[in-house]
């Protein structure tokens, strides 16, 4: 398997404050590149080996893990709140299509790590590493992940979840606003949307482009393909988001946008919009540039509103909070959630 290593200088990611482009990229307070160097030095190899083993059997779990991290980070922050079972957050409509196998895999990795190191590594950190290693195993870039996140004590309610996960029906102005609310910019929007180069989508997420009227921006042959996959507005089928290389991480997603073969409204509008079009064109021509920018975007996203220090907890079971007697209770001051 040919993979691309994107080595982002650690100093450029906040250790010494080197600049990327025109601005310094900070590491969130409380996180560290060497957080588990003493408590669990085998952490990253353990996660990498488990992900490699599982994906060799079922490559479809790579996009499932990546999507799980996105849905976690964009609601309350990268705090593993999405992993809490029987919660309004997990049961909210956008999360109902998250793969149960992805949740199970995170639990398996957690058990493996705990068996080696004790209960010292958070589920939030395991999810961040698993997402990185899933991308890498299917041909994408390798990037460093700062660690030290704590797990949330609560999950989001339904309204909060719905308000924070961007809809596939969004156009670019709404997407830019949604990303800006997280401290992410249009550049991050375009690069992180490249995650749609792997995985599948349910018909319900794009039938607005087929029914009641066909979206005229769709390539005619592609619309014929989609109608075959989703013969009615209520179809429950799925189709690949990148139908040419659906489980290989590459820049074909952007090539398809140029060919009017973007699956979601939110995909194709990246090319239709004058603000984001130049980036789509650049990434379609330069896979190495896409990989670099995707890696930076993932490092940024993985630090959204993290809980550190005395806030949160390190769960023994990713799907439930620790028993009350063992909860690391936050102080009475404002929670140490990095904004």
Order of helices and strands: EEEHHHHHEHHHEHEHHHH
Number of strands: 6
Distance between the termini: 38 Å
Overall structural class, as computed from helix and strand content, comes to mainly alpha
- Which strand order does the major sheet show? 1-4
Describe this structure in words.
It is a single chain. Helices cover about 40% and strands about 5% of the residues. It is built from 13 helices and 6 strands. The chain has helices at about 45-55, 60-75, 90, 100-115, 125-135, 160-165, 170-180, 185-195, 220-230, 250-260, 265-270, 275-285, 285-300; strands spanning about 5, 20, 25, 140, 200, 240. The longest helix is centred in the first third of the chain and has 18 residues, at about 100-115. Mean pLDDT is about 90; it is low at about 1-25 and about 325-335.
Q: How would you summarize what this structure contains?
A:
The protein has helices at residues 43-57, 61-73, 88-91, 100-117, 123-137, 158-164, 172-180, 186-193, 220-229, 252-258, 265-272, 277-285, 287-301, and strands spanning 4-5, 19-20, 23-24, 141-142, 200-202, 238-240. By secondary structure, it is mostly helical.
């Amino acid at each position: 398997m040919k993979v691309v290593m994107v080595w982002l200088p650690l100093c450029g990611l906040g250790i010494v404050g080197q600049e990327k482009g025109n601005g310094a990229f900070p590491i969130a307070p409380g996180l560290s590149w060497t957080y588990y160097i003493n408590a669990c030095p085998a952490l990253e190899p353990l996660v990498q080996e488990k992900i490699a083993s599982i994906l060799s059997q079922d490559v479809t779990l790579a996009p499932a893990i990546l999507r799980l991290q996105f849905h976690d980070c964009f609601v309350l922050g990268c705090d593993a709140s999405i992993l809490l079972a029987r919660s309004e957050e997990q049961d909210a409509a956008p999360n109902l299509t998250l793969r149960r196998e992805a949740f199970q895999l995170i639990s398996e990795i957690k058990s493996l790590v705990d068996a080696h190191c004790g209960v010292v590594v958070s589920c939030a950190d395991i999810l961040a590493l698993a997402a990185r290693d899933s991308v890498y195993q299917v041909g994408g870039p390798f990037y460093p992940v700062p660690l030290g996140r704590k797990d949330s004590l609560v999950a989001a309610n339904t309204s909060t979840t719905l308000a924070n996960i961007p809809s596939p029906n969004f156009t670019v102005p709404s997407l830019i606003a949604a990303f800006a609310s997280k401290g992410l910019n249009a550049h991050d929007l375009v690069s992180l949307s490249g995650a749609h180069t792997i995985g599948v989508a349910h018909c319900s997420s794009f039938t607005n482009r087929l029914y009641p009227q066909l979206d005229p921006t769709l390539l005619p042959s592609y619309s014929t393909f989609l109608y075959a996959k989703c013969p009615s507005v209520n179809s429950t089928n799925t189709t690949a988001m990148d139908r040419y290389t659906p489980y290989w991480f590459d820049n074909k997603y952007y090539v398809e946008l140029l060919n009017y073969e973007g699956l979601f409204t939110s995909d194709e509008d990246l090319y239709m919009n004058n603000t984001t079009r130049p980036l789509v064109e650049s990434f379609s021509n330069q896979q190495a540039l896409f990989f670099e920018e995707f890696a930076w975007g993932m490092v940024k996203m993985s630090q959204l509103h993290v809980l550190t220090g005395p806030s949160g907890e390190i769960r023994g079971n990713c799907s439930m909070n620790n028993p009350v007697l063992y909860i690391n209770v936050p102080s009475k001051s404002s929670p140490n959630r990095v904004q």
